[in-house]
Amino acid sequence: MKPTESSVVVPLAGQPYLTVTVALLSMVGPFTIDTYLPSFPDIEATFGISRALLSQSLGVYLAAFAISTLFWGPMADRFGRRLIIFSSLFLYILASIGCALAQSVESFLLLRTLQGLAASGGFIAGRAMIRDVHDARTAHRAMSQVMLLFALAPAVAPVLGGWLHDHFGWRSVFWFLCGFGTLLLLLMLFVEETLGQEQRQSVHPSAVMRVYIRTLLHGRFLALVFSLAFSFAGMFLYIAGAPTVIYDFLGLGSDDFGRQFIPMVGGIMLGSVISSRLSHRWPTEFTVAIGFALMALAVLVNLVASSLFQIHILTAIGPLVLYALGLAMAMPAITILILDCFPHNRGTAAATQGFIQMLINAGVASLAVPLLHTQWLHFVLGQTGFLLLAMLLWFTVARFGPKTASNPSPR
User: Fold this and answer.
1) Is 387:327 a contact under the CB 8 Å cutoff?
2) How confident is the model at residue 326 (pLDDT cuts 50, 70, 90)?
3) How far is the C-alpha of 163 from the C-alpha of 309, rounded, in Å?
4) HSE on the CB side for 170, CA within 13 Å?
5) What proportion of the chain, given as a percentage, has pLDDT over 70?
6) What CA–CA distance (Å, rounded) separates 162 from 157?
7) Which of 25, 238, 351, 356 satisfies CB 3.0 to 4.6 Å to 122 for a cystine?
8) Residues facing 7 on adjacent strands
9) Which of these, 262, 290, 9, 302, lies nearest to 152 by C-alpha position?
10) Domain architecture of the chain: domains with CATH
């Protein structure tokens, strides 16, 4: 392994541990989103609220996650990755305890917001850690491995959430999230810092603002970020809308969420393995193009099936698996290309990416799902629109332009 110019050398023996730990940090988001989905009916009954209002608990979480990335990113570039992860996990644990004890919908929404503010810290700093200790090609492989492990979360989370809900009630889901955050704190005790002192960046507001302005003026960077965000939104529509898909469209119960998530995550895991294996054989751009081709095929199959047949679990979930496979092939490669646009400000670059992606996810949960939830075809058309935007950005803009910022030197 050849470390990058901004890295602290991590021994080879420690790199698999780092990869696994970063993958577990990435699982915080899916666990916080998916584990409580089977509990929607009971939470609605507890607080006496509608499905539309409870969906806002997902929207505020994602919005808070998005906004807080803009804070955590520069902090990770200034104070190091470990401190940010420890701080954010501590806040996440407190917020999870609060959600478990909430007695009103107002306090529940507030604490879900705090969960979002805290959960993004490990997500941002962890990604930066991976790129710190790897060169571009091995970073693609490591990021694929992270995604392979991360992909377990959407499969495990709703099944585990359903089991906890059925045996211990919906509040036990948030006690579980508290325990998961505590486990991550313990694991981080054995992870070394990856950002050298000489590479620490200023957090003066003017310095931070200059970097953010550079990211917003970098055409290739923005095209990559939005392309990845919209392609992910095509799958996240079905994740955020899982209660509607499972309960309303398919007529299944709280213990049936695995029928959607396990096959979908199988597609993600297979795509991650393929992306990792191809990282040393194919150019990055070619891997991304193949991923988009698979997603386009999935959307085409979905459109045909929804137009010609009644909704069935095979016709509903099958195309989603193919879409997830293509997304998993493209996502690690695009992520590395995004971070490499700003090699001396990877925390800030990851923060901008996280902000945009989570803001779009929040819009999907708060606006798209309530708008499209009345008919299955509407979900399919929503996914089609997101993918078309993603492909337009990738094939017309993202592949061209300067690969790094015009002034890549440290601040």
Assistant:
1) no
2) very high
3) 32
4) 19
5) 90
6) 8
7) 25
8) 195
9) 262
10) 12-192+204-397 (1.20.1250.20)
